Amino acid sequence: MDQQEFCPLGYLKEHKDGVTLMILNQPQDIDVTFMKQMWAKATLKATVDGGTNVLYDSVKADRDLYIPDLISGDFDSIRPEVSEFYKSKGVEIVSTPDQDYIDFAKALRLLISKSAQVEVIVALGAFGGRMDQVFANIDVLHQAQKLTSVPVVLASHCQMCVLLKQGMKHCLQVDTGHEGDWCGLIPVGRPCLHITTTGLKWNLDNQGMEFGQLISTSNALEGNGLVTIETDNDLLWCMEVKPDAE
Q1: What secondary structure, in 3-state letters, does the chain show?
Q2: Dihedral (C-alpha) 215, 146, 110, 162: value to the nearest 10 degrees?
Q3: I need a surface site. Which of 45, 89, 99, 136 has the fewest CB within 10 A?
Q4: Is 109 exposed, middle or buried (0-12, 13-18, 19+ CB in 10 A)?
Q5: What gap in Å lies between CA 18 and CA 116, rounded to an integer?
Q6: Is this prediction's pTM over 0.90?
Q7: How far apart are CA 72 and CA 23, in angstroms?
Q8: Which residues of 4-17 are buried (b: 16+ CB within 10 A; e: fewer)?
Q9: pLDDT tens across 157-208, in order?
Q10: Residues forming beta bridges with residue 197, ordered by sequence position
Q11: Are the C-beta atoms of 236 and 141 separated by less than 8 Å?
Q12: Which residues pair with 219 in a beta bridge?
């Protein structure tokens, strides 16, 4: 079985390079302080349709300091004055009208084609709001598996999730100091028949998980700084985040 090492909260490290930041259209899910912290770390920044309104409204007097590299979407949400402001700043604005995919998915394709130096893509504003949109954002993680080997993380100031690829042993480094109290493994998409873990309070030993049967929620880290997960199908890893390391 192939092995992959990954630090789920590596994007929070002080000197992390290769971060691409995306801002989605869920203003109630975006903590402005955290957004500014991630903006300072990112080498490439993009807003997705109404996510441009979120950026514009969040930074107010400092708008000239927060100019994205790319704005994309079908533009059914961005306000005219917001679009005009960033257009006047020379921002690349790309219309993606295809209604078979959500704006997040289309923006992801654009970003992947733009840079070969990306180590992680972090999307803010993926949680909260409408439940159908939350599931649509998780579906984009499944789509991303077919597009890139770069990890795509859905993040907020207090939680994150990432899709672990099937047929691999994932070695997760969980020693950044930003790890919170809870974590979970969710078989979103289809059942996982064989999962083995180490480093969790409640480990799995070649067990299956599916909705209507067993899923792993409210789990916790054992505290040794490493979690290993072997899975035969794609599996969603979720965890609590403490933005300020203690």
Answers
A1: CEEEEECCCHHHCCCCCCEEEEECCCHHHCCHHHHHHHHHHCCEEEEECCHHHHHHHHHHHHHHHCCCCEEEECCCCCCHHHHHHHHHCCCEEEECCCCCCCHHHHHHHHHHHHCCCCCEEEEECCCCCCHHHHHHHHHHHHHHHHHCCCCEEEECCCEEEEEECCCEEEEEECCCCCEEEEEEEECCCCCEEEEEEECECCCCCCEEECCCCCCEEEECECCCCEEEEEECCCEEEEEEECCCCC
A2: 20
A3: 99
A4: middle
A5: 9
A6: yes
A7: 11
A8: eeebbbbbbeeebe
A9: 999 999 999 999 999 999 999 999 999 999 998 999 999 999 999 999 999 9
A10: 229
A11: yes
A12: 183
Domain boundaries along the sequence of the chain: 15-157, 163-241
CB 198 within 8 A of CB 210: no
Residue range 163-241 in CATH 2.60.120.620 = no
Query: Using one digit for the tens of pLDDT, what is the confidence trace for 16-53?
Result: 678 999 999 988 889 999 999 999 999 999 999 999 99
Q: Strand order of the sheet with strand 2-6?
A: 2-6, 168-173, 226-231, 192-198, 207-209
Quote the CA–CA distance of 245 and 180 in Å, as a whole number: 10
Cα separation, 163 vs 142, whole angstroms: 7
One-letter amino acid identity for 79? R
Residue 246 has pLDDT above 70, yes or no: no
Q: Which residue has the tokens 């289309």?
A: 106
- What is the distance of C-alpha 236 from the center of its chain? 11
Separation of alpha carbons 221 and 172, rounded Å: 11
